[in-house]
Task: inverse folding
């Protein structure tokens, strides 16, 4: 299911608890620029890792990092190409796009999420730094 800057609005008063739906709602909130709403899907003790970089622990610290997407002339897009879930674990292949002014960096990401009681407890993204650099050059 592709998700971009115009995600499906969630029905009023409902909050997903299914791990795949939670993950998609989280990414949709980020793509909508709603960092505070996205943070509501994170467990207070969430562990977030961009593999190759230090792990960030805790909702507040992860939200601080994500707030970097909430700047003038900056936006985030996400396109999910495939997802699979077993129990509390969701895996997805996706393309992330970060726009900073006129620069558009598009790159592939594989994400692994663990969801318990409707909250993301582990978020781990795998990507190739070289592919990110190519995305910046490609624009």
Result:
């Amino acid at each position: 299911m592709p998700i971009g800057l115009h995600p499906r609005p969630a029905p009023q008063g409902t909050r997903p608890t299914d791990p795949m739906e939670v993950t998609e709602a989280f990414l949709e909130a980020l793509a909508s620029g709603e960092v505070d709403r996205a943070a509501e899907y994170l467990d207070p003790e969430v562990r977030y890792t961009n593999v190759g970089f230090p792990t960030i622990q805790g909702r507040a610290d992860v939200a601080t990092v994500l707030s970097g997407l909430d700047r003038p002339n900056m936006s985030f897009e996400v396109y999910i190409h495939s997802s699979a879930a077993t129990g509390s674990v969701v895996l997805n292949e996706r393309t992330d796009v970060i726009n900073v002014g006129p620069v558009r960096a598009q790159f592939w990401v594989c994400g692994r999420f663990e969801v318990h009681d409707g909250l993301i407890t582990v978020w781990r993204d795998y990507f190739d730094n070289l592919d990110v650099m190519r995305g910046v050059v490609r624009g």
